[in-house]
């Protein structure tokens, strides 16, 4: 997967970033840079984000297992091994712009 960078401004969730669930191992590097005064959490889903009519706003989202990426208020990065179909950044506090960057690694089998 090529590196993907997304941003969100204000209290909102970003668009989902699908990952290749067939990569083995599924290691994903995630970096978040909250804007000034912002609090962000990285979330994942097991939903089929490519299904016709899928709505990420009503999907099933869970906080990632890396504690550093839950309620982050400063720049932080972590390696994620959670199985997921997509990740997103959810800004729960702040009116500024926050950024998330994902890079997936693995070996095609």
Summarize the amount of helix as a percent range: under 10%
Shape: globular
DSSP strand tally: 9
Q: What number is the mean pLDDT? A: 91
Q: How many domain units?
A: 1
Oligomer: single chain
Report on this structure.
The structure is a single chain. The protein has 109 residues and is mostly beta strands. The chain has one domain: Jelly Rolls. The protein is built from no helices and nine strands. The chain has strands at 4-9, 12-13, 17-18, 24-33, 39-45, 62-63, 76-80, 86-93, 97-107. Strands 2, 3, 5, 6 and 8 form a five-stranded antiparallel sheet that branches. It has a four-stranded antiparallel sheet with strand order 1-9-4-7, with no helix packed on it. It is globular and about 35 Å long. The protein starts with a strand and ends with a strand.
Q: Which short descriptors sum up this protein?
A:
mainly beta; 0% helix; Jelly Rolls; 5-stranded antiparallel β-sheet; 109 residues; 4-stranded antiparallel β-sheet
């Amino acid at each position: 997967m090529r590196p993907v960078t997304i941003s969100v401004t204000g209290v909102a969730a970003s668009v989902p970033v699908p990952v290749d669930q067939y990569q083995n191992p599924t290691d994903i590097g995630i970096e978040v840079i909250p804007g000034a005064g912002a609090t962000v959490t990285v979330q994942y889903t097991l939903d089929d984000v490519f299904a016709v009519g899928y709505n990420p706003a009503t999907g099933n989202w869970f906080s990632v297992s890396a504690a550093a990426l839950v309620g982050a208020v400063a720049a932080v990065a972590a390696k994620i091994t959670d199985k997921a179909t997509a990740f997103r950044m959810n800004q729960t506090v702040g009116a500024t712009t926050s950024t998330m960057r994902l890079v997936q690694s693995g070996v095609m089998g």
